[in-house]
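Hey L., structure's done. Input below.
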Amino acid sequence: MDAQVHELDALVVGAGFGGIYMLHKLRNEQGLDAVAIDKAGGVGGTWYWNKYPGALSDSESFVYQYSFDRDLYTDTPWKTKFVRQPEILEYLNGVVDRYELRDHIQLETGMVSAEFDESAGMWTVRTDRDVTYRSRFLVTGLGLLSATNLPKFPGMESFEGSLVHTGAWPEDLDVTGKRIGVIGNGSTGNQVITATAPIVGHLTSFQRTAQYSVPAGNRVLTEQEQQAIKDNFEANWDQVRNSGLAMGFVESTLEMGTVSDAERERIFEEAWNEGGGFCFMFKTFGDIATSEEANEEAAKFIRNKIAQIVTDPETARKLTPTDLYARRPLCDSGYYETFNRPNVSLVNVKENPITKVVDKGIVTADGTLHELDVLICATGFDAVDGNYVRTDIRGRNGQTLKEHWSDGPTSYLGVATSGFPNMFMILGPNGPFTNLPPSIETQVEWISDAIAHVLADGKEWIDVKPDVEHEWTETCIDIANQTLFPKSPSSWIFGANIPGKKRAVMFYLGGLKEYRTIGGAEAAAGYQSFATKADALTPVS
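Output:
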């Protein structure tokens, strides 16, 4: 039987922070016939899937939420410095109900393919359910970190215990008293190791790359702090929108070389005690991410802390990074202290690689069988473009998005890519590298205005010009090369965590303020960087 075909003004793919707000803008504010779909069994996006123990925002709670409705903001009861996954998921469900969006979200419905009909100016989206959508506008909120990256070790299919990825954590999994192995120790691995060590029988961390991490300093906010956050709503969000990182603090412009050694150590110690990875890297000094000399001083401070915290010298050696401090900055709830526990052991898989997985656990190169009941892969994601290139998305002249991005993902402003008219991306490649909710709001509002512009002008579709996309890509590369981040050998923000994936710049590192300025100028000029159906577009090759 043929699938049902639903005609829409706009289809939103994804029901996380971005998809929820996009649906609200299109349905409730513009009055369009819009629907959202999501392959998950509930709304929440990243926060639906990542239910692993210890999942926590790394942005402070007062800026890790929507700001478009002050009443919603005032009614949000978060009471801790950082916010945990169950609270975020509850919040997003509350937003869906508050704005009466639930009846317009089709869950357990994944996008299988999307194809643009140039003559009709319509997208046809086929799903894994018995339904197809024909829509004038397609907005994708597929998530930066949602395409799971599962390692491929020989024998994984033979493991008799529970094999899980943190990005698809089973709700009924209880690790209490069990022997668990955790592969990976980035942000997620850091969190899950710290949270589970106190309750498991034994935990073995299989570490590829030693990480720099500082305390999160998570704590309950005082009533005065909570009230001040609500009272200072306008000032706080004005600061966020006119900052680089949108993290809710003023980024330092102080160069490390201008202060004495004693003052440098005092500033670092104060930041360590206060907590927060982004604060440590960007609130202390303004050149940690750009000067190798300044970066080394920050790295040295953290290395010294590891030596002070970890009691076993060999374990401390394995945990101590030697490369640049130039990845997304981590914070933790006692990560290094966890390795002082008698039920926690560490395997450096660069020195002692995993050779295979067997029915009872993991075998390493030294011949040791690490017996496990649960194997947890905290191995991250095929970030930014992963979900896009895994889906059959075809634009003008039948070109696939995978073909268009064969040399690396490209876009204009992270919201549009040439050859795919009327398709807008939330957090697409080369969008801003910031605290995500403010960037999501910026992009959703920009996309909403662009859609309104197309409708008001009677255009059938708009498509970003190829030369504009190329120029934006070059801008992102130029800015990234002014920082130390591209020199990090295995950072996911350049796709380097995926074997065989070509390294590429995936973010605009120029900050949210400048990004908003550029996007605002584009809209004010009438979207001159976009061609319409009536314009002479260069054929897509």
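Residues 436-457 form the longest helix (22 residues). The CA atoms of residues 210 and 322 lie 8 Å apart.

-- N.
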